[in-house]
Hints:
The structure holds two protein chains of two kinds.
Chain A: E1 5-18, E2 21-34, E3 38-42, H1 49-56, E4 64-69, E5 72-73, H2 79-88, E6 90-93, H3 105-115, H4 120-133, H5 149-161, E7 167-171, H6 179-196, E8 199-204, H7 207-210, E9 215-220, E10 223-229, H8 232-238
Parallel strand pairs in A: 3-8, 3-9, 6-7, 7-8
Antiparallel strand pairs in A: 1-2, 1-4, 4-5, 9-10
Helix pairs in contact in A: 3-4, 3-5, 4-5, 5-6
Chain B: H1 2-42, E1 47-51, H2 57-63, E2 75-76, H3 78-84, E3 89-102, E4 105-112, H4 114-121, E5 126-129, E6 139-143, H5 144-150, E7 157-162, E8 165-175, H6 180-183, E9 185-189, H7 190-197, E10 202-203, E11 205-210, H8 216-226, E12 230-234, H9 235-278, H10 280-288, H11 293-337, H12 348-351, H13 359-385, H14 389-394
Parallel strand pairs in B: 4-9, 6-8
Antiparallel strand pairs in B: 1-11, 1-12, 2-10, 3-4, 3-7, 3-11, 5-8, 6-9, 7-8
Amino acid sequence: MSSEAVVVVRDVHKTYRYGRSYVRALRGISLEVTRGDIACLVGPSGSGKTTLLNIVGGIDFPDSGAVVVDGVDLGKLKGRELSNYRLRKIGYVFQFYNLVPVLTVAENVELPLALAGVDKKIREGRVRELLEAVGLAHLASRTPDSLSGGEQQRVAIARALANNPAVVLMDEPSASIDVESTVKIMKLVEKLNGELGQTFIIATHDVLVARSCSKIYKIRDGMVVGVYSGDNVARALLGDI
Amino acid sequence: MKRKLRFGLTVAGIAVGVALVFSLLSIAATAERIAVQQFTRLVGYDIAVFNGSLRQGRLQQRQIPLGSPVLQSPVAEYVAEAISSLQGVYAVSPVITVRGVVNGLSVTVQGIDLQTYVEVVGGVNIVEGKMFSCGNCSEAVVGRSLLLELNATVGSRLNLSIGSGVSEVLVSGVFETGMRIQEMVVYVPLDLVQKLAGMEGYATQILVKCESPRVVEAVVNSITSAFPGLSAVSMVAALQRVEEAVNTMTAFFLSIGAVALTAGGFGVMNTMFMAVVERTREIGILKSVGATDRFVFTLFITESALIGFTGSFTGLVVGIALSRLIPTAVVSIGGARSPGARSLQPPTNLRIAELVITPEAVSIAVVTGIAVATVAGLLPAYRAARMKPVEAVRYV
């Protein structure tokens, strides 16, 4: 493992069973994400991007292979340790935001802090800071259903950043929002990456999203078929993603 | 809105169970108090001695002719004298209880020996007038309720007939007990009743007062040994039997309440299962942002307990109302169905009874309500806690 690698995925296999049929979502995928990267998993629907994100996020488990995030071997985690891993090491921005509908914007952002047992006063300050960072401080008392898709996405990012995670995972961030909102979201991601050095792993098949990435992993049929960084990112974007 | 309605209905389910348990327990406690109060008011004596043939139907028919006003087989009056000489006996008093007719109204007539009755029972609570002045005069002390029925007052003259014997008696006094059933009685001198009923030298019961409550059982044994044909019933034992009867009633009531609460519990379980299904995605979100299984479990079990808590306290309030309403309603229905126009008024003993709210009834009802709801929520909460986050967040 490279000294800078924050996420190491090695030879991970995952097969889903649907009734009598089996779908091999990941077929021995391996990759390394360096701390401070905006890494994009690029590939068509069904290529295994979301499965990989779920495994790295600790909400799904590989059939075989190893995943190490910020020095934590996920294969060794169970129960409370796994919950703690999700709470402190990972920030997850789901495709459909997955905000808790009965909580306000501020409460949604506060949720991981409360689960981590952070003191109420510190929580309030942190929530304010996060909402200001994503430009939604004025909507703190609103409920998610009164926000636009882009705004909900930003709340989800703020929630993901709450406990200073090692990695923020984003699943198809542009899937449910318009182009303008996508551009804003990716500018926010770049800003957070630039200012905080926050590592992002983004699953997408949208060029608009992928062009913000510092590294691109092309995924086909559950395997990495190409890795692009630096000038090669543009080449990858011009290619067949 | 749908959730609130479901929450409300589930709370109502628990509330009904708790209300039922509480009201039935309170009614049982009230009934017990009334029974004990009536009993202790009725009996100032320790032992009642009567003819054992009372319990033998065929023998009773032979001794008491059909249509006789005498309700019990007689006991010779000299037995009272013999009992008074037994060790541990403080005083004895022979009494006769018969059915009689006063101004056309069928009533219970008690013939008492003034001097010994006061010693054994402690007298009669006369609120107007006075006790009859002699042992064989034609005077009567009448219960307040009966006097009102008869539309008479102190100083009125009443026609008293017992069987074929008829006499005119002067109302010398009025007594009260606070209970209508006890006030539908006429006290007259023992000699007068013996004469009218043709029972000279006999009584229907001999009441015994002991020197101390500790010797009651010994005196009962002495009486039954000395007079094998007689039955001697200790009032302590009788009171225990009353309490046993009340306990049986309480257990029966509790089982009814338990059935209602169980139904309420299933309601909570159903609601919580629905809540878990509806909130699957929410559970998935919580778990994927780091909530532990225990946190999710606690979240749902707390909600169940909250339903139980709200239901229990709502039920308690409803239960108090029910406890006041049920006896009145039952008495009203009972009164309307009573045969005989003159007895249509509901008896006062239940209506005037003050509701007994015991801490036990409150705690049993509330704790059971909360416990039932919490236990009912265990399985749904466990299911929520065990949900796999990756499947839960995908749930639509």
